[in-house]
Amino acid sequence: MTLNVVILAAGQGSRMRSDLPKVLHSVGGCPMVAHVIAAANALEPSKIVIVYGHGGDLVKQAIHGDNLIWAEQAEQKGTGHAVMQALPHLDSASTTLILYGDVPLIKSSTLAELAASAGDRPALLTALLSDPTGYGRVVRSVSGEFERVVEQKDACPQELTINEVNTGVLAVPTDLLMRYLPQVGNSNAQGEYYLPDILPMALQEGLSVNTVAVSDALETEGVNTKVQLAKLERAYQARIVEDLMSAGLSCADPARLDIRGKVTVGRDCFVDVNVVFEGDVVLGDNVVIEPNSLIRSSTIGSGTRICAMSHLEDAVVGENATIGPFARLRPGTRLANKTKIGNFVETKKAVLGEGSKVNHLSYIGDAQLGANVNVGAGTITCNYDGANKFVTTMGDNVFIGSNSTLVAPVEIETDGFVGAGSVVTKTVNQGELAIGRAKQRNISGWKRPVKEAK
Ligand code: UD1
Ligand code: CA
To answer: For the domain that residue 379 is a member of, what is the CATH number?
Structure first.
């Protein structure tokens, strides 16, 4: 049967004390509602209706998808009222799955199980909690059949002792939803239209209500405060780091590796403590990442070692390279196999051929280096004249002496050699030695200054 999804995301989130709409707060580097959409999309729904309210424009700007439909709930009058706003967009011959935008850890496998359990009747996802405070309780008959959900504020003392709660996740044949929702009233303690009030209507028609108990209550935990957000962030990190270790990653401490994006690892990679991966990161086989490194949207080839305290962004590093410690690879850095970037080196839009080395204290920006180039300590490519950027080009086997200044646009051809301390402004032809520095003068009989007597 076709599946429609409704995601409730109109809540104000005032307890976050934030200008950002609640569902845009991130878990694992990705907005909470995007996690919910991804879990829903795994079930291939024909459409996803997002019920938005407060800060809706910001949410619409941040979240995209071909199958997304937006429905506004201007005033928050309860979950039943929220789903009412989505009704005009739903297909009567479908099953509707209702989710919350602020419950980011829900798994698609759980949703699939619930949707399969719905069929021609509603199915509710429940959870057993040692402390059910605040949740709607699941009231059952003596024989254990589902009867209704009672909200905390409407419950009698005996109902408050029930540990089985409504998670809010519900699958309903859409034609039933269309018939029942308009009949839901708001004569209750909160004056709200409660979505679970449709369930007794199904029972009255002789239909049963199936329930599925979630195995891990973290899956259905919502976020109302930044403390809860941090708790779910840790749970999410534990979950995905475990997935990566199952895929073969070794890490010094799973709790000190953070993944804010998508990481793919080969065989026998090792990640030391306090490493952060952001965006799409791909590691080949036998890659080692030493402590305190940030790897953002980069690809690292097999056998390469990223030494401690390195910062990579939009970089592609080949195989058997060594980077850092204290290296900064900025966007557009493309390093071939067996390259070396040493400490306190910054690269940007720098392409290095196989075996080339920039070992110490250099800036290599807007540069094309051939193979087996050796760039000495303290070399700077002067790529910017204050208005425009220019390229420095080096052929194979070029040697740049320490503390050289290469004023772009400039080319050092194959086998070119630059003497230490040179300022290079003109082409160095193939095999030439360029020396561009003041000639040394030695002055004999020189007397050192002496301290004046006071
Ligand atoms: C609801 C359930 C309760 C369940 C609990 C699980 C009802 C009446 N109660 O509680 O049984 O145990 O969830 O967390 O359904 N929302 C809107 N518009 C509204 C109201 C809510 O979009 O008018 C959204 C919120 O943004 C949130 C979700 O619906 O994502 C749940 O709202 P919340 O106020 O947290 O839950 P309760 O209604 O208190
Ligand atoms: Ca509420």
So the answer is: 2.160.10.10
